[in-house]
């Protein structure tokens, strides 16, 4: 009898407790749900691994302005150059919460540098890849008065006169340096590499006759101004802004520089937040002011959504490792 009474007394209590707990469940889950459902509710920081005022920084600011309009919240640019443009991204991956409020620019060096030297990040594990935006157009440019009219001319001279021609790059292991090493290996030509701190210094050196040519990006202003001539670009296709400039592939050299940049964040971001950011940056990539900047810098639009960009990042990491090993490049 007592046992039956206890059961009858406890059953309502159990049901009441269960009902109460069920009622509390949405409240317990509410913070995480609200974080994704109302994102963003405050300004977002985008860390750029290049110095303020440079070409990439200007592009990033134009993209951030357009994305801010799409999101309804401001995106604040924070410049953290260093470690071949990966310092800022590395710090975001290591220190920031994966809540979508700390983002970083993800340059191609993120996938090459680990093959060249010890780095404090793993590009395959430490990042969320939100969207790829564009790619740099690297090209071989010479002074207007240069006797070389094509990449074939340059290669022929470099083969017949090993080490007589010099070119400027932004450093050992950079995209332009690796492209030239691959060109040398492919053709037997030999050129002398001279490192500089920036593309601005490189083009000044070319115009001043201190080096013979440049394989760097951001050459558009000098070519448009009639001071330099472009012999060829390291892309799969010609760019709309320069329809008369052939690719190296068209000239018989199968070399394509995959040097894109995109937007990422720390690993472990909420898929709903990734979707919101991806959609905003896709819309921003179509902004007329941003597209004019890409056209000015001879850069193609190369938007990839998060799944596509993530696969691309893994493939590029493997590809960069292959080329670094084949060329035997190491950065001390």
From TrEMBL:
SUPFAM superfamilies, per database record: Periplasmic binding protein-like II (SSF53850)
A Pfam family assignment: TctC
Protein keywords: Signal
Signal peptide: 1-35
Gene3D superfamilies for this protein: Bordetella uptake gene, domain 1 (3.40.190.150), Periplasmic binding protein-like II (3.40.190.10)
Domain of life: Bacteria
Statement: the UniProt record of this protein carries the keyword Cell membrane: no
Entry keyword Coiled coil: no
Xref: InterPro entries: BUG, Bug_dom1
Family recorded in the similarity comment: Belongs to the UPF0065 (bug) family.
Name this polypeptide is given: Tripartite tricarboxylate transporter substrate binding protein
Lineage: Bacteria, Pseudomonadati, Pseudomonadota, Betaproteobacteria, Burkholderiales
